[in-house]
Design brief:
Layout lengths: L12 H13 L7 E8 L1 H7 L7 H5 L2 H11 L9 H4 L2 H6 L3 E5 L1 H6 L6 E7 L4 E6 L12 H12 L5 H13 L6 H15 L1
Parallel strand pairs: 1-2
Antiparallel strand pairs: 1-3, 3-4
C-alpha cells in the first residue's frame, strides 16, 4: 500500500524525492537554481507538464510548480496549494527553470517502477544528477514512523484540539484498538442480525 508523502500528483513524487536526495548531498537552494531538467515516464510528461497552472487543482498536477514549491517551502503538502502560496513570486520565478521530458528506459519500466532522473544546474555552473528509483511512501520505500507522524500532525492539527491530537496519536501508535472500533463492530453485528 502506498502512503502519499506529498500533496500532489503521484507522478511527480519521484522527482520531488530525487530533489530531496540531491539536496542532502549538494548545496542546492531555491536561490542557486539555473535550471532543473526532469526525465520520467509517459505520465510524468503527459499529465504533469503544466508550466503555468492557474488554480490549486492545476498546480497539483504541475511538475514545474511542485518542484519550485518544494525548493521554496521544503515540502509539497496542503500549504503549497493555499491561495497566497500559489502566487508566491519566488515559486513563480523558479517555474520557468524547470523542464520535463519522457525518457525511454524509464518509461519502459513503468508501471512496475515509478522513477525519475533529475538534473540540477546551479548558478555557479555545477551540475548535479540523481536517478530516483522509488517513490517515498511506496512499499519498496515506506515512510518512517517519524515521517508518518509529521504528516499526521500537519493534517490533523487543523481539525483536532492539541489534547485530542495527542490522544489519538497515542491510541494509533501504541494500542491494539482503534478509536470507534467498538461502535463500528456493534453496528456491523446489528446489520448481520437484521439480515438474518
Amino acid at each position: 500500500m502506498t502512503v502519499k508523502n506529498h500533496g500532489c500528483c503521484g507522478h511527480i513524487f519521484p522527482a520531488l524525492d530525487g530533489l530531496k536526495a540531491l539536496q542532502a548531498s549538494a548545496p542546492i537552494t531555491a536561490e542557486s537554481i539555473e535550471s532543473i531538467h526532469i526525465e520520467g515516464y509517459g505520465a510524468t510528461y503527459s499529465m504533469c507538464n503544466r508550466p503555468s497552472p492557474s488554480s490549486a487543482q492545476e498546480a497539483r498536477f504541475s511538475i514545474q510548480y511542485c518542484i519550485a514549491a518544494y525548493l521554496v517551502l521544503g515540502k509539497v503538502r496542503l500549504q503549497a496549494f493555499e491561495p497566497p502560496v500559489l502566487e508566491d513570486a519566488r515559486i513563480r520565478a523558479l517555474m520557468p527553470k524547470v523542464s520535463v521530458a519522457e525518457r525511454a528506459d524509464i518509461a519502459a519500466r513503468y508501471p512496475r517502477q515509478r522513477m525519475a532522473n533529475i538534473r540540477v544546474t546551479t548558478t555557479d555552473g555545477n551540475t548535479y544528477q540523481h536517478l530516483q528509483k522509488t517513490r517515498k511512501g511506496d512499499p519498496e520505500d515506506p515512510m518512517t514512523d517519524t515521517e508518518l507522524l509529521e504528516k499526521y500532525q500537519e493534517l490533523a492539527s487543523g481539525s483536532l484540539s492539541p489534547s485530542a491530537l495527542q490522544s489519538l496519536r497515542e491510541v494509533v501508535m501504541s494500542s491494539n484498538e482503534l478509536p470507534g472500533s467498538v461502535v463500528l463492530l456493534g453496528l456491523l453485528n446489528s446489520v448481520k442480525s437484521d439480515r438474518q
